[in-house]
């Protein structure tokens, strides 16, 4: 079922959904099931699975020269989505990115997903790999998520790259995109960020999932600005609790967002690890309750494949 259909059928009740990571290379699918089993008890509407590009590492050979190796620490996004749908009968949503894919690679991936019965996609440009200072598209690939959306919507109408096919089955993907209440870090300002978000909607995006935030007013203002620009598709807030002292610096550094002063000061005053986790979880619970009162279409939890905190928060608010 499409995400938009889940929202319609909920009749105003906020959906519960989660994002997980594929297992590390060397682990089996049971690592994923172990993460999801406690969360499935709460009937998530859908489960996102992140995609992780190859990286390059250099190792010194016996002669002193360096050799470059290609590695992927978390392969298996598509297979994990298929396993989730088969095992739990819950809609799984793969992240589909620009980086590392030619247009032909993308088309083949979409054909595979269609054959597997996957109805939804979360479409992203993707981050630069660690060896790149800025994002570099694959030769023959897409530089922007908007271009990727165009290819998907073309396939949704039966338009393949090869226009000489004897048959051209139309697909029917529901397209999700990312929204940034505090703007994407590469955008010069929020207005420019919203301009490109609107372009994605005009090209065929069906729903938005936001980056995490810790101040609900950021989300409320973001939704208001979107509606003023006639961006009228569902905007699902992304949620993650702060649970460690180190996250006071790592979250702003890695995700380019602000932490509310009240939350930061509470954490700074505490010296106890468990107390810091309690502060973050209680803050997140209050966030979620306020968002539900606002009338959000759902709450989407970034679990980082840790189900314990997510389950506790969800049980407190649903």
Automatic annotation (TrEMBL):
Keyword set includes Cell division: no
Full protein name: Methylenetetrahydrofolate reductase
Cofactor: FAD
Keyword Lyase attached: no
Leading EC class: oxidoreductase
A cellular component term, taken from the record's GO annotations: cytosol
Residue ranges of coiled coil: none
Keywords, alphabetical: Amino-acid biosynthesis, FAD, Flavoprotein, Methionine biosynthesis, NAD, Oxidoreductase
Gene3D superfamilies: 3.20.20.220
A molecular-function term among this protein's GO annotations: methylenetetrahydrofolate reductase (NADH) activity
Family: Belongs to the methylenetetrahydrofolate reductase family.
Biological process per Gene Ontology, one example term: methionine biosynthetic process
Reactions catalysed according to its record: (6S)-5-methyl-5,6,7,8-tetrahydrofolate + NAD(+) = (6R)-5,10-methylene-5,6,7,8-tetrahydrofolate + NADH + H(+)
Record CDD domains: MTHFR (cd00537)
Organism of provenance: Empedobacter falsenii
Pfam families: MTHFR
SUPFAM superfamilies in the record: FAD-linked oxidoreductase
InterPro entries associated with the record: FAD-linked_oxidoreductase-like (IPR029041), Mehydrof_redctse-like (IPR003171), MTHF_reductase_bac (IPR004620)
Assigned EC number: 1.5.1.54
Pathway per the UniProt entry: One-carbon metabolism; tetrahydrofolate interconversion; Amino-acid biosynthesis; L-methionine biosynthesis via de novo pathway
């Amino acid at each position: 079922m499409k995400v938009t259909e889940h929202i319609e059928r909920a009749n105003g009740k906020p959906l519960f959904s989660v994002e997980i990571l594929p297992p590390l290379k060397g682990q089996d699918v049971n690592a994923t099931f172990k993460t999801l089993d406690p969360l499935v008890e709460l009937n998530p509407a859908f489960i996102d699975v992140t995609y992780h590009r190859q990286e390059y590492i250099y190792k010194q050979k016996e002669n002193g020269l360096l050799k470059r190796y290609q590695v992927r620490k978390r392969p298996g996004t598509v297979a994990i989505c298929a396993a989730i749908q088969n095992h739990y009968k819950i809609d799984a949503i793969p992240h589909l990115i620009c980086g590392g894919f030619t247009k032909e690679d993308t088309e083949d991936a979409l054909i595979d997903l269609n054959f597997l019965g996957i109805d939804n996609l979360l479409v992203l440009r993707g981050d630069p790999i660690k060896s790149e200072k800025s994002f570099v598209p694959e030769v023959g690939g897409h530089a922007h998520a908007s271009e990727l959306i165009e290819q998907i919507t073309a396939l949704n109408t039966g338009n393949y790259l090869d226009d000489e096919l004897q048959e051209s089955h139309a697909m029917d993907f529901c397209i999700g995109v990312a929204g940034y209440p505090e703007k994407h870090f590469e955008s010069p300002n929020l207005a420019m960020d919203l301009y490109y978000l609107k372009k994605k909607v005009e090209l065929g995006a069906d729903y938005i999932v936001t980056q995490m935030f810790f101040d609900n007013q950021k989300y409320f203002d973001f939704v208001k600005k979107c509606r003023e620009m006639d961006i009228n598709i569902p905007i699902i807030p992304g949620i993650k609790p702060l649970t460690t002292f180190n996250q006071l610096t790592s979250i702003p550094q890695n995700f380019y967002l602000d932490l509310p002063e009240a939350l930061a000061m509470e954490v700074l005053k505490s010296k106890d690890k468990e107390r810091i986790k309690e502060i973050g979880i209680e803050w997140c619970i209050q966030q979620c309750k306020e968002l539900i009162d606002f009338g959000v279409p759902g709450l989407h939890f970034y679990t980082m494949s840790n189900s314990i905190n997510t389950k506790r928060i969800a049980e407190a608010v649903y």
